[in-house]
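User: Before I run my own analysis I want an independent prediction to cross-check against. Here's the chain; please return only the C-alpha cells and, at the end, one sentence I can use as a sanity check.
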Amino acid sequence: MSTVFAVLKMLGCLGMFLYGMSLMSGGLQKLAGNSLRSFLAQMTSSKFKCVLTGIVVTALVQSSTATTLMLVSFVNAGLLALANAIGVIMGANIGTTVTAWIFALSFDGSFSLGAIAIPLMFFAFIFLSSKKPKQKNFGEFLMGFGLLFLGLSTLKDTAYPLLASGGVQEFLKPLTSYGMLSVVLFMVIGAVMTLCLQSSAATMSLTMLLVSAGVIPFTIAAAMVLGENIGTTITSNIAASVANVSAKRTARAHMLFNLFGVTWVLCLFNPFLRLIGIIVEALGFANPITADFNSNPEALAATLPYCVATLHTLFNIINTLILIWFIPLIEKIVKILVPSPKDSSEVFKLRYIGGGLLNTAELSLNEASKEIVNFGEICRTGFGYVKSAINEKDSEKCNEFIDQLVKHEEITDNIEFEIASYLNEVSRGEISGTAAERIKRMYKIIGEMESLGDSGEAISRMITRLKVHEQTFDENQLGKLNRMVNLVEAAFNVMIDNLRNDDLRDISNARDAENRINSYRNALREEHIVNLEKAKYNYQAGSFYMDIVSELEKVGDFIINISQALIPNGKNE
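Assistant: C-alpha cells:
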C-alpha cells in the first residue's frame, strides 16, 4: 500500500510540475503579449538573429514546444518565412537546454528550488488578486514558476526512496545490458515518454532522477535524452497537421533537425560520450565514463545530472553549428516531403517588410505600401471563397470553403497587426508631416482590410446557420447572390488597381463600383419584401439571404473606404 501511495504521490508531483510549466509559459506569453510575438516574428533578418531569437524566447517561456507552436502559427498565417522559422527552431533547441541546467542545479545540495518556490507563490497570489491584467498575468507567471519548481523539488524527494527500494533497479537492470540494443530501446522509451507527457523538460527531469539514483547508467540516460529530442518534435507535427503547407514544412524541419542530430550521435555514440566526460571533468566533476561511483555514491547524485545537461546542450549546439549552413537544403527537403497541393496557392505571407526597417522613413513607407497591395490581394483571394461557399451543394466541400473563410479572417488579423507594428516603428523615427499623414492613411487602410476578413467570416457563419436549419437558397436567390458577389468582386479589382497607383488623383471608378453595389442591394431589399408578402420562398431562408446581401454591401463600404483613404483627406483632388 505504501508503494502504491508513493507512486501516486510521484505522479501528483509530476502533474504539479507540468501544470506549473504550462501556467508559467502561458502567463509569460500573455504578459509579454504582442511584444513577444512581434520579437519572434521580426528578429529574423539573418541566420544569427534567427538562432538567437529562438534561444532567448525559449529560455524565457521555458518550453521549446511553446516556441515551435508559435512558429507553426506564424508560418500558417504567412508572417514568417520557412527558412527563418528553421533558424528559430535551431535556437529553440539550444534555449530549451537552460531548463536542463536549472534541473541539474536542483540536484546539487547548494540550491534548493523548494525553498524559493513557496515564498514566490505567496507573492503570486497577491498579484493574481489584482484587477489589472498585467499584474494578474505576472502573478500567473510567478505561480507557475513556483509550482514548477515545487513540483520538481517534491518529485525528487518522493522518487528517491522509491527508486532506492531496489525493485525498480532489478526491473530495469536486464534492459540496460544489451549494448547498443539497449541504447535504441531507451531512446524509444524517451521519445514515448516525451510524447505522453507533452514535455521534454518533464522527461529530462525523470531521466536525471533515474541516473542520479543509480537506476540507469549514464549511457542509457544519454539514449533517453536522444529520444526526448525526437519525442518533442511530435507535438509540433500534430499541431501542423491541420495547418497549411508552410506550417507542415516547419514542423517537418523541426523533426529533420533532431533526427539528423540523433543519427550522427548514434554513429559516434561512444566517442561523443567520451567528449562529454572530458568536458565535465574540465568543469570539476567526476568523469561519468571512467569514475567508480560505487565507491562514492554521493558523487553520483552530484555529477550525473550535470553530465546529462552537458550532453543535452552540446548535442543541440553542435547540431546547430552543422545545420545552420544547410538551411536552404533543409528547406528544399521539406518542400519535397510536403509538396504544394495542386489546386491551392498558399501565398499568404508578408513579402516586403520582413527584413526590418530601411534607412529612411520614406523608403520604409514604400515597402509598407507594397505590403498593403499584397494585403489587398490576399483579401481578394479570401473573398473568392464566399462565392464558392454560397454555390456549393455538397455539404463536405462547403465546409471546406467555410473553413477557408475562417482561416482568412485569422490571416487578415495577423497581417494587420504586423503592418501596424511596422508603421509604429517607422513613426518613432524622425518623419516629415507628409510621411506622418501617409502613415495615418495606411493605418486606416489596413483597418478596413481587416474588416474585410471579418465580413468573410460573418458570411461563413450565416451559411453555417442556413445549413443547421436545413434551409437552401432557390435558383433565383442564388442568381441574385452571384450577381451581388460579382459586383463586389469588381469593386475589389478597382480597389487593387487604385492601391497599385502611386499617383492616384481620382477615385470615381471606386465610387461607381460602390454605387452599383448599393443600387442593387436596394433593389434586392424591395424585391425581398414583395416576395415575402407573396410567400415565394421560405421566410427563414429569405432572412439568411438578405443577411448575406447586407454583409456583401458592407464589404463594398469597406472597399470604398480604402480607396478614399488613398487620397489625402479622403477627397478627390
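Sanity check: The chain is about 80% helix and 0% strand.
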